[in-house]
Amino acid sequence: MSHKNPIIAITGSSGAGTSTTCTAFQHIFRTLDIDAAFVEGDSFHRFSRPEMEVEIRKAKEAGKYISYFGPEANDFGALENFFASYGETGCGKIRHYLHTFDEAVPYNQLPGTFTPWQDLRANTDLLFYEGLHGGAVTEQHNVAQHVDLLIGMVPIVNLEWIQKIIRDTSERGHSREAVQASIVRSMDDYINHITPQFSRTHINFQRVPTVDTSNPFSAKDIPSLDESFVVIRFRGIKHVDFPYYLQMINGSFMSRVNTLVVPGGKMGLAMELILTPLIEELMIKRRQARGQVDWLGT
Ligand SMILES: Nc1ncnc2c1ncn2[C@@H]1O[C@H](COP(=O)(O)OP(=O)(O)OP(=O)(O)O)[C@@H](O)[C@H]1O
Ligand SMILES: O=C(CO)[C@H](O)[C@H](O)COP(=O)(O)O
User: Fold this and answer.
1) Which residue ranges make up each domain of the chain?
2) How remote is the CA of residue 49 from the centroid of ligand 2, in Å?
3) Is ligand 2 within 6 A of the CB of residue 68?
4) 231 φ, ψ (degrees, to nearest 5)
5) Protein residue with least CA distance to atom 31, ligand 1
6) Do 153 and 10 touch, CB atoms closer than 8 A?
7) I want to staple 134 with a disulfide (CB 3.0 to 4.6 A). Which of 11, 67, 274, 297 is the partner?
């Protein structure tokens, strides 16, 4: 964790909605005039899509599983070093994993491949990570320790699977059977490397549908925001202004002392109301760590 070069990470499983909710952060950064460097967690996959297919086959022959949720398919050490480097110097190297033809064509590459590593833009105000492992901890690596604000994006699991199946079949060219097989293959890593992160987060946003999702494998569409609630759990944050949120967010209520529930359609508003002061605080600490004093003297 570095006050000088803060890191915000939004962490969630594949299909949880981390990319989708980036727009709320972009909006906050624009409002606060923050120049954020964006990095996608998929950059830290170890393998391209064809290489991963080979690894899956090899693991199967050895009676094992390999998945995008675990350390075999992701370089946690490189991610930890990247966060440490950004925290210390504001520098680091990034690349993109190109999922679709639309993403790959501008680079003249195939879907399922990586762009070359390149230097992060210089002089950014903070780093914004979006991906699978922003809060990962293993015996060898501790990614979470470098993150100043860790957010979990975690729909209940049936909804997460619906989002993944529909997105991967309609946008990423995978068959329904292949996506279901990847969910099964990922289960150990999901339990060992994805879910534990949500106990390390400062805030979790958990979308809960109010329509029947009891058979996610037959779902034809993704429940909309208006067909859901969002459960927002706070941990280790001082002075959470619950009365203000309850007043500002129509239809919200508290279900526990640390938990606010908002109608799905208010998720963007809730994110902005809750995250804006936390991000402002990071920027104040950043200025203080750099010896710059605000006009308010803070
Ligand atoms: N709040 C939401 N309401 C409705 N649809 C959503 C919501 N969040 C995500 N989705 C849909 O779920 C699918 C998966 O979302 P998204 O691509 O953002 O997931 P992700 O966490 O970034 O996944 P990955 O890490 O695999 O890229 C998308 O089709 C997206 O439109
Ligand atoms: O979203 C994912 C992990 O976050 C994907 O499962 C992973 O990036 C591999 O992508 P693809 O199946 O399109 O090759």
Assistant:
1) 7-297
2) 8
3) yes
4) -95, 125
5) 20
6) yes
7) 11
CA distance 174 to 178: 6
Return per-residue pLDDT of the chain as tens, 298 residues: 778 999 999 999 988 888 888 989 999 999 999 999 999 999 999 999 999 999 999 999 999 989 999 999 999 999 999 999 999 999 999 999 999 999 999 999 999 999 999 999 999 999 999 999 999 999 999 999 999 999 999 999 999 999 999 999 999 889 999 999 999 999 999 999 999 999 999 999 999 999 999 999 999 999 999 999 999 999 999 889 999 999 999 999 999 999 999 999 999 999 999 999 999 999 999 999 888 766 554 5
Q: Find the length of the chain.
A: 298
Among candidates 20, 9, 12, 8, which has minimal Cα distance to 268?
A: 20
Query: Given ligand 2 and candidates 66, 133, 172, which is best to mutate, with the most ligand atoms within 8 Å of its CB?
Result: 172
Backbone phi, psi, residue 41, to 5°: -60, -30
- Residue of the nearest CA to atom 13 in ligand 2? 99
Mutate to test the pocket of ligand 1, among 44, 222, 232, 269 (most ligand atoms within 8 A of CB): 222
Q: Note the ligand closest to the C-alpha atom of 104.
A: 2
Calculate how far, in angstroms, residue 272's C-alpha sits from the geometric centre of ligand 2: 28
Nearest in space to 198 (alpha carbons), one of 190, 187, 208, 186: 190
Residue nearest to atom 22 of ligand 1 (CA): 19
How much is the pTM? 0.94
Residue nearest to atom 14 of ligand 1 (CA): 15
